[in-house]
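The record is given unchanged here:
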Amino acid sequence: GETRDSLEKERVVLLIEVKKRNNDAVVKKKMQKTFTYRRQEIVQDAPVVAELVNKWPALFTNVRSEEAESAIPQTTMGLYVIRNEGAQEEDGPEDVGVIIEGVELLSNLRSISSGWAMLFGLIYTLNLSYPQELKFTFEFLQKVLMNLDGNKLSPKVQSLKIKMLQ
């Protein structure tokens, strides 16, 4: 029952709520309420990242360390990135690490790109399969961005690669 105007009003209120301390529950609720509006704007308007950061700052806030640590055991495969409070975009991360099957395997990596390279190295070394829900994401990273075995693409990844090259 929401209109584009009512969701824009919610977004403006969200900007105010993001600035308040200990307001995570309200921010999360408003982010959920405005999801379709935000998604439509991103897909249709394709705004630049700087504009997204200004309009939707809650998308780019860091998770509290307690929340992140409690998510590690449920993480099938991924990276974590820790940034200092108040760090600028150009500042490097404080820590980057690799998690596989709920276990932190590597930490204190130099950069996010090093983290990705190490994650792929561990996947190959441990002979692991990509998580089913992320298989196309990992295939894209491996075959398109890293150009490893890039001649054999699934139809979905091939379609995305063609769209990117246009």
